[in-house]
Design goal:
The chain has 112 residues and is mainly α. The chain has helices spanning 9-19, 24-31, 35-42, 50-59, 64-69, 79-90, 94-108.
């Protein structure tokens, strides 16, 4: 997903969110901000602090460099891993997270 010079940071945020199949509500929950804040970011209505850009990049599985400048390195992980990370970030139950970690470990190690 190559960025273009005509894209704004808001457009890149929205594009990354779409790649992860996240709604604005989902991203707002992960970022612990109101949905209206995410909308403001995507519509370039407010300037975003550097620390928030870093958190957005983490939440969207990309780099601050991509969000700011649209450089080609927006994907820091493969699409499947991105989707899993997005889903895991939304899972709040600690026991469920632990269970999933055990199951993934068993799959990776060939134990069924």
């Amino acid at each position: 997903m190559k960025g273009t010079v005509n894209e704004t940071m808001g457009m890149r945020i929205k594009k990354r969110r779409a790649v992860l199949a996240m709604s604005q509500d989902d991203l707002a929950e992960v970022m612990n901000v109101p949905k209206t804040t995410i909308s403001s970011y995507e519509n370039d209505r407010i300037d975003i602090k550097g620390s928030v850009i870093i958190e957005l990049a983490r939440s969207l599985g990309t780099t601050p460099d991509y969000l700011l400048l649209g450089r080609d390195n927006e994907n820091v992980t493969d699409p499947y891993l991105e989707k899993m990370m997005s889903l895991l970030q939304r899972l709040k139950d600690e026991k469920a997270r632990e269970l999933l970690a055990v199951q993934v470990s068993a799959l990776v190690n060939g134990v069924r």
